[in-house]
Write a structure and sequence with these properties.
By secondary structure, the protein is an alpha+beta fold. It contains six helices and three strands; from the N terminus they run ααβαααββα.
Length: 127
């Protein structure tokens, strides 16, 4: 709850934030494309540590430093999906994130079906 109040105090919540991001950031980023491809993660994830032991700020920094390409689309309210795209040299799964404009969920689901048909996804995690 304290984290939510802190986010609200610095103005990162509300319809105005979503509207600004859609109108300035998201629209510019996607341009004329139907779908945008980004890595799901920007680097391998950090070692697992209990969230309660790290504290909010350390968890926030850890998450945004490796998963910073996912939250902007949640904020915009635009659909995004991550599909399997191989494995890192250390065996960690790699994901490819696809993003489309609001209301284009069917486009993403159709794309996922095409990708899976062309290269079926593993049914079990890597060893």
């Amino acid at each position: 709850a304290a984290a939510g109040r802190a986010v609200g105090r610095v103005g990162l919540t509300g319809a105005g934030t979503r509207r600004r991001w859609r109108g300035t950031g998201a629209e510019r980023f996607i341009g004329d494309a139907d779908v945008v491809l980004t890595p799901t993660l920007m680097r391998p994830p950090p070692a697992a540590v209990r969230w309660g032991r790290r504290g909010f700020v350390r968890n926030f920094v850890a998450n945004t430093s490796y998963a910073g390409l996912c939250p902007p689309w949640n904020l915009a309210g635009w659909p995004a999906m991550s599909v399997p795209a191989g494995t890192h040299s250390g065996g960690t799964p790699i994901g490819a994130q696809f993003v489309a404009r609001a209301g284009r969920e069917a486009l993403l689901l159709g794309l996922a079906a095409q990708i899976e048909a062309a290269r079926p996804w593993p049914l079990s995690p890597p060893a």
